[in-house]
TrEMBL record:
Gene3D superfamilies: 3.30.70.270
One Pfam family this sequence matches: GGDEF
A cellular component annotation (GO) from this entry: plasma membrane
Molecular function as annotated in GO: diguanylate cyclase activity
Alphabetical keyword list: Coiled coil
Domain GGDEF stretches: 185-326
Annotated InterPro entries: Diguanylate_Cyclase (IPR050469), GGDEF_dom (IPR000160), Nucleotide_cyclase (IPR029787), Rev_trsase/Diguanyl_cyclase (IPR043128)
Record SUPFAM superfamilies: Nucleotide cyclase
Coiled coil ranges: 129-156
GO biological process: cell adhesion involved in single-species biofilm formation; negative regulation of bacterial-type flagellum-dependent cell motility
Name of the featured protein: Diguanylate cyclase (GGDEF domain) (Modular protein)
Length: 328
């Protein structure tokens, strides 16, 4: 995501009772990509803070017409705002309609109001505009980092640990999404089962079995990518030694060709399987089904049809592709 699209700060602007033109300043805040809300008095700011969780409270004011001590006292007395940094700013009347560069320069030159008289020496340590901008930048960087970490967690949650393909949960999520996307158009899927895989594990051990599944997963992904990209698809580990492929906007005949490509790719691995009753290498059985999502078709029927086609391939000798009869 482009960092400029982020709006990490919610700034509360407290408007004093006297007339005040915020237009130029609001324009600048928008150019800095800051989210904000304008509150007419401290009580309103406290109310908004409860729902917006602001990062800073910005108070433009005229020291001759406002009471910063009273404002500060009210904000710090309220539990919801007592820990929120406050930025005091004067000379807002100098903000006029200017170019973005000139307006930024003007704002940059404004120093926070700090009255060093005894009557106002209780004001908090002020933050400069530069400090505010630095905080915005840090907040943006933090949000980008958190967003990347969240995406990584989501990605890991959707993957099968062994094969790094989509897991069964992600398969169902994708199938439901494509069911909506393919209304009145073809949606195909296929299921692939590794022939006599239990015998393979018994013969070569589970570590070899895991490596075998990883190679097959890569072979399926390679085959589908070769004939399908740039069109959308999903390859998933359906469970155990079974794999699934979702092929949106693809009819039955072309889905069968994808299945045959997968079968050839798995054969080309030439993974030895001396315990197989049919071949000396690993083979696969595949079932293909297709539907046109609509009022008279159901998602579970598509899965069931592919499953039945796959078991027909297994029951009739394995190492082959079977297609469900017609379009559901």
């Amino acid at each position: 995501m482009n960092p400029s699209q982020l709006k990490p700060y919610i700034i509360i602007i407290i408007e004093e009772t006297h007339p005040f033109n915020f237009s130029s300043f609001v324009n600048l805040l928008n150019q800095l990509n800051l989210s904000f809300v304008i509150a007419p008095h401290p009580e309103s700011a406290i109310f908004h803070a409860e729902y917006t969780n602001p990062d800073i409270i910005l108070i433009p004011f005229d020291p001759n017409q406002s009471n910063p001590q009273e404002t500060h006292h009210k904000l710090k007395q309220a539990k919801i705002t007592q820990d929120i940094p406050v930025l005091w700013m004067n000379n807002y009347s100098e903000l006029k309609t200017q170019t973005p560069q000139a307006l930024a320069t003007t704002l940059e030159a404004l120093n926070p109001f700090v009255n060093r008289n005894t009557s106002l020496n209780t004001l908090p340590t002020d933050m400069t505009i530069n400090s505010l901008k630095k905080q915005v930048q840090l907040q943006q960087e933090l949000l980008i980092k958190l967003q990347a970490e969240n995406q990584q967690l989501k990605r890991l949650a959707s993957l099968d640990d062994l094969t790094q393909l989509a897991n069964r949960r992600e398969f169902y999520n994708c199938l439901q999404e494509q069911w909506q996307s393919c209304q009145e158009d073809h949606l195909s899927m296929l299921l692939c089962d590794v022939d006599f895989f239990k015998l393979y594990n018994d013969t070569y051990g589970h570590l070899a079995g895991d490596y075998c599944l990883q190679q097959i997963a890569n072979a399926i992904e390679t085959a589908v990518k070769r004939v399908r990209e740039p069109e959308p698809y999903l390859v998933a580990r359906y469970g155990g030694e079974e794999f699934a492929v979702i092929l949106p906007h693809l009819d039955l005949e072309n889905a069968r060709k994808v299945a045959e490509e997968i079968q050839l790719q798995i054969r080309s691995l030439k993974i030895p399987h001396r315990s197989s009753p049919i071949r000396s290498n690993i083979t696969s059985s595949l079932g293909v089904a297709c539907c046109v999502p609509g009022e008279k078709s159901y998602l579970q029927e598509l899965i069931s049809a592919a499953d039945q086609a796959m078991y027909k391939a297994k029951s009739e000798g394995r190492d082959q592709v079977k297609v469900a009869q017609g379009i559901l």
